[in-house]
Amino acid sequence: MKNRIRIIIVVVFSFLFQLVSASISKIYAASYPNADVVNDGFSNNALNFKNPIAIGIVGILVLLFIGAVVFKKLKRKYIHGFGRIELNIMDEDTSEVLKAQFRNLNNYSGSFTLFEVLEFKEEYEEAKNLKFVFRNDDGIEVVNKSECIVERSGRRLDSGYRVVLYDKNRITVLLNKIPKSIIVEFHTK
Q1: Which of 58, 56, 95 is nearest to 181 (CA)?
Q2: CB 35: neighbour CB atoms within 10 A?
Q3: How far is CA 173 from CA 47, 108, 157, in A?
Q4: Do residues 132 and 151 make contact, with C-beta atoms less than 8 angstroms apart?
Q5: Quick check: 154 and 174 in contact, CB under 8 A?
Q6: pTM of the complete model
Q7: DSSP-based three-state secondary structure for 103
Q8: Spatial CB neighbours of 35, under 8 Å, sequence gap ≥ 6
Q9: What pLDDT digit, counting tens, does each position of 77-96 carry?
Q10: Transmembrane segments in this chain: where (predicted)?
Q11: CA-based nearest residue to 174, from 188, 189, 160, 184
Q12: Domain boundaries in the chain?
């Protein structure tokens, strides 16, 4: 797909370069009627670049093409939220588990943090840098740049490690400042 886009860009710019060089040679020929002008391959009736409407149309087409390419790149980058997560908060001291909380992710775009999902409660502030990024393959990528410890299947993951959660996958987030852990389970529907 990238090669096709590159080929299209090269063809469009080479065509525009030929158009500009043809118009410059026509202007030069009109200014100096006795001078020798190299034939550029365009007939005088084929393209008329003295008309500003023709130049405007070509410019608009180029801008539309560039806009479409940029829009497609941005659309890939920012994926609209999908699915929901189940949060089980457990007190490590008493082993008491709070009632499961379900949060829909449809209102988020691109990414969200665990702190946002927990409604900005101050006791969970250390989870600010635990980021979840939506992916194209119906999963969310967990990026841990926080002080929290993230476990998956009983194994601790390093601070910079990224893990992808698919339907019904779960991670456990161990908070350091308070004796609580959060079990995060992702559901696509």
Answers
A1: 95
A2: 8
A3: 67, 21, 10
A4: no
A5: no
A6: 0.58
A7: strand
A8: 28, 29
A9: 667 778 888 999 988 888 88
A10: 53-71
A11: 184
A12: 2-77, 84-187
